[in-house]
Amino acid sequence: MHDPQPTPSLFTRLTGRTGVIAISVFLNFAGFTLIIPVLPFSVARYVSAAEVAFWVSLIIAVYALCSFVAAPVLGAMSDRFGRRPILLLSLCGSALSFAVFGIGGALWVLVLGRIIEGLTAGSISAMYAYVADTHAPEERGPAFGLLGAAGGLGFMLGPVLGGLLGQISLSAPLYGAAGLAVLNAVLVQLYMPESHPSESRSAGLHWGQFNVFAQLAGALRNRRLRLLFGVVFCFAFGSTVLQSNLAVLLKELLAFGPAAVGFVLAGIGVMDIVSQGLVAPRLLPRFGERRVAIAGLIINGTGLVMLSLLAIFPTLLLLICGMAMFTFGDGLFQPSVSALISDAAPAGRQGEVQGANQSQQSIARMFGPLASAWLYGLFAGAPYAAAAAFVFLAASTLYARSTSTARNSASVCNA
C-alpha cells in the first residue's frame, strides 16, 4: 500500500504553470491599481470640484462600455488562436493606454486612454481560460483562489506604490503601470507555453462571435450559466460602486490624500491574500463552491452596509471593519463562482464563456459608476446601501437555487 500523496504546498503550486499565471495576475492587478489613488486628483485638474465624482465615474463607465464590446470577442479569439496571443495583445494595449493617460493634458486624453484599455481588455478572461485548460475541474477552485491571492497582493502593493508615486507627480503612477504591463507581456512571451493546443481550437471565427449580444445570448441559453451570470452581475454592480466611489468618499469624508487612499487599498490586498490564498482553498473541498460562494456574498454585503454608515459615522474604525468584511467576502466568492462557471462552460468554449462573463460584468461596471455618482449626490452612503441590496439579492438567488436543486435530487433518490 502506498502512502497517500501530501497536498502540494502553496510554494509547490507556485513553481508550475499556475505560478507563472499567478505572477502575471499579480502584475496585472498591481498595474491597474497603481492609478486608483490618483484618479480623482488627475481628473480634478480639468474640472471643478463639484464635477469630480461624476467624471471619475464616467471615465470608469467608458472603460466598462469598451470592455463590454471587446471581452467576448477576445475570448472567442483565444479559443481560435490560443491564449498567449490574446494575453500579449491585451497587455500591450494596457501599456499604451496607461501611457496615454499619463501624458494627459486634457480631459479627452484621459477618456481616450480608458477607451484603449477597454478595447484590449481580454487579459483576465484569457488567464481564467488558461487555468481551465491546465487544471481538472476539481482543481480549478483552489487554482482560482491562488490567482485571487496573487491579485490581492497586487492590489495591496499597487495602490501603495501609486500613492507614493503620486506624491512625486500625478503622471508617475501611470507610467509605472505602463511599465508593469510591458514587464507582464515579457513574462508571458518567455515563460508561458500555450495552453490551448491547435487540435482543441475552434475551427474558425464567424460574425456571430463578433456580436457581443449574440455571444451573451448563447451563454445565457445554458441554464446553469444563466443563473451564475445573474449572480455575478449583482455582485459586480456592488463591487463597482465601491471601486468607482471609494477614493472620492475617502477624499471628501475623511480628508485622505493619495498616499492614505493607497494604504486603504493595500489593506484590501492583504485581506484578499488571506481569504483567497489561505481560507478559500481550505473551505472549498469541505463545503463546495456553491456554499462558499453564498457565505462570501453575505459577508461582502454586510461590509457594504457598514461602509454606507460612514456617511453618518465617518470613523476610521468603521472604515476598517467595513473594508475587511467586504474584501473577505469577495475573496470567498470570487474563486468559488469562477470554478462554478468554468465547470458549466461547454467543452471547447472556455474562452468564449469567460469572455461573455467579463462582458456581462462590464454592463454592471457601466451603470454602477453612473448610479453611484447619482446616488452619492443624494446621500454619501446611498451608493453602498444600494450595492449591499444587489449583493444580498445575489446571495438569496444562489441559495434558493441550491435549495431547489437539493430538493430535486432528494425527490429523484426517493422515487
3D architecture notes:
- By secondary structure, this protein is mainly α.
- The chain has a single domain (13-193, 210-407), classed as Growth Hormone, Chain: A.
- 81% of the residues lie in helices and 0% in strands.
- The protein contains 16 helices and no strands.
- The protein has helices at 10-14, 17-34, 39-44, 52-81, 83-103, 107-119, 123-134, 137-168, 172-191, 212-220, 223-253, 258-287, 289-308, 316-344, 350-378, 382-414.
- The radius of gyration is 21 Å and the shape is globular.
Describe this protein with a few key phrases.
415 residues; disordered C terminus; Growth Hormone, Chain: A; 81% helix; single chain
Give a brief outline of the structure.
By secondary structure, the chain is an all-alpha fold. It is built from 16 helices and no strands.
Helix and strand sequence: HHHHHHHHHHHHHHHH
Structural class: mainly alpha
* Discrete helix count: 16
Report the CATH topology name. Answer: Growth Hormone, Chain: A
- The CATH class turns out to be Mainly Alpha
**Sequence stretches where pLDDT stays below 50 over 5 or more residues:** 1-15, 406-415
Helix coverage percent: over 70%
Q: Determine the N-to-C terminus distance.
A: 40 Å
What is the level-2 CATH architecture name?
A: Up-down Bundle
> What is the CA-based Rg, rounded?
21 Å
Outline = globular
Q: How is the biggest beta sheet arranged?
A: none
